[in-house]
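lol ok so funny story. i was supposed to be doing the assay writeup but got distracted and ended up predicting the structure for this chain instead. priorities right. anyway since i did it might as well share w the group, maybe its usefull for someone
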Amino acid sequence: MTQITIDMELLGKVIAQRIAPATPFDRTPWNALECAAYLRVEVKTFQQAYAPLPSFPRPIKPITALGKGHPKWNAQKVIDWFFAHEEEVERRRRPKKDLG
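and the output, tada:
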């Protein structure tokens, strides 16, 4: 007889995903790692080059029993910011010099 081993933690996560209502994307908080992953940069680069920009969405710092928690960013605002700056990148590119 074959014995089946069940990973209860994994099973719990699968069940929770199936029965829990999906969080609307405009209400989804992203941490620095998730923002960096979306922008396809290192976390350090995100924290030093993107997050401090005046145009970048402001972080939400939840209050915890020990003080302020780690900053979170609204996922939809990060995505909107990214696409709003798409045209700026195109304008900053230097035209190729005509070698002819």
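The two ends are 79 Å apart (CA to CA). The chain has one domain: 23-92.
back to the writeup now i swear
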